[in-house]
Structure formats: structure tokens, C-alpha cells
């Protein structure tokens, strides 16, 4: 900012073209803009009513080559107005000062006479044309892949086929050996033996069955030293179904079959101690449970009932009846079994239904 080189101070008394009052102006300005007459001319554009008189103080300073600062103070009858503003030239500063004085004294009249100050036209210099780089050629557009229709479900991919499993070993041999207690066909409730040899196909079995009843002694009521020694053995055929638990090595065989064999007796203490035989035939059915703690070995227990188809009679010399089997009987047995190959177990789990 540049300080003012010189100040011209003048005290003016001036009355505008109106009959009302007097306008007293105190003017301070730099030498480059010491033109109080220009301020009077600008004020003459406004019909001012100063009333009992107005005292105006104006100080105009040059800030730089293109800007002027105005400090304005008006002493009115009822108030004091102070304003500070800047203008781009001396002429603009004087015109703005006159407008500020007129607006403070008579705002309505001043605004009615205000005419817009024309703005200087700004000429723009033509800009030199710059060489624009050539735009790269656009890449060819690729066709979008067709999208599936809305609402249509994508087709599921086919699942891979599982690897073929090795064939199950559904064919094997089984044999059982057990001790049993039997009620019939021999007299009383006595011990015996039981054995099978069979072919296993899946969860079914076909077996040859043998039952042996240990000898029993039957004495005459009137002669305890005389009587007969009796025994029986049978051979039969039966079929079995063997449901099992899938996650345990436990099976529940259910069997039905037929058997037949000689019921034999040899006398003692009699005049004729010869040996006699008679055929005994029966149908039998059993239910049991088996458990295989190893791959080829297991234990089992079963209860079997039978119904006799024949009832041979054993007589002594005087034709007295020594023994005749009942119409039905019962056997209870427990034993072991062996399997070749093992069908009850497969990778640690039993097979069968």
C-alpha cells in the first residue's frame, strides 16, 4: 500500500438545490484526487432534504495505483453514521461517497435516482491453440455373455459317479456247537449236544442239524435193578433268517426245520436185554441271539420247541409200557459258532438286514 503524498484540506459549505437546511462538507483527499467539485456534482443528482443541517467528513486515501479507501462520517440531527469502503478508482470513490451521503440523508429519494454505473468491458485475449493429442481408437466392444432368464434355475451339475464298491461276501460257511438241556423225547429233563453245518447266503442260512440226547436210565417200578437204558440222536434240515443290528455285531437268528432219528433202548436185568429202535420224527422252531467279538468267532444262545410227528412206545417182556415220548418238548442251548468267511462283520460293522 502506498501512503498519500499530500493531503489537500478544504472546508466547504454548500447547499443543494433544495430549500431545506444546509450541507456542510469537510473534505480530505490526496493530491491525485483532490476534486471536491466532483463530489458536489454527484450530490446534485439527488434531491436531498438536510433538515436543520448535516455535517459531513470525507477522507480519501490512495492505497495503491488501482484502489482508493474512503472514510465517511455524517452527523445527522438524530444520529451519527460512519462508513469505510474502497473503490477501484478516484471517480468511483467520489461517486460511491455521494451515494452513501444521499442514502444516509434520504434513503428513498436516493435509491429512486440511482442509476447503475456501467461496468467496463473486459476484452479477453485469444488463447493460442494447443495441439491436442489424437485420441486413441476405442477398443472393439465385446459381446456380453448371455445371462440366464430371470426366474429360471440353473441346471445342477451332474454328480460324479461313486467308485464301484467291492462285491459283498454274501456266501460263506457257518458251523455251531452247543450244549443243551432237553425235555423229551427221552424221559425227564436231561443233557444233550447240538451241532450244525450250514451255508450262509446274505442274511439267511440253510443248515444240517444234529441233536444228540445223552443216555437215560428207566427202571421198572417193582424192580429197581431192571429196566432199560435209552438214548436218541436225530439229523435234520432247517432254514434261518438272521436280522442284525447295523452298528453292532449282534444278530437274532430265527430258524424252522424238521428232524428225524432213532429212539433206541437196551434192557438190563431182564430175561431179554436186546436192543430195540424206533423212528422219531418232529418239527422244530427256534429263536436266539448271537454275538461275534471277532471276525470269525461268535457265541450264541437259543430256545427251541418241537412237536412230535411220531410217538414210539418202548415195552418190556410182559408188554408193559416203559416209555413213550410226549407230543411236544423244549430245548435250551448255548454254544459257539465259526464263520468262513466272516459275513457278520464288514469293516467293523455287521452285515445282513
Structure description:
Helix content is 9%, strand content 48%. It is mainly β. The protein has 2 domains: 24-112, Double Stranded RNA Binding Domain (2-Layer Sandwich); 171-341, Porin (Beta Barrel). An 8-stranded antiparallel barrel has the order 6-7-8-9-11-12-13-16. A 5-stranded mixed beta sheet has the order 1-2-3-4-5, covered by helices on one side. Strand 8 (204-219) and strand 9 form a beta hairpin. 24% of the residues are buried. Mean pLDDT is 78; it is low at 1-21 and 343-353.
Helix content: under 10%
Name of the top-level CATH class of the largest domain: Mainly Beta
Structural class: mainly beta
- Integer-rounded radius of gyration: 69 Å
Which descriptors apply to this entry?
Porin; 3 helices; disordered C terminus; Double Stranded RNA Binding Domain; five-stranded mixed beta sheet; 353 residues; mainly beta; eight-stranded antiparallel barrel
Question: Which helices and strands appear, and what pairs or packs with what?
Answer:
Layout lengths: L6 E8 L8 E8 L5 H8 L10 E11 L2 E9 L4 E8 L2 H16 L1 H7 L57 E13 L5 E13 L2 E16 L7 E15 L8 E2 L2 E15 L6 E17 L5 E12 L5 E2 L5 E3 L4 E13 L4 E2 L2 E2 L3
Parallel strand pairs: 2-3
Antiparallel strand pairs: 1-2, 3-4, 4-5, 6-7, 6-16, 7-8, 8-9, 9-11, 10-12, 11-12, 12-13, 13-16, 14-15, 17-18
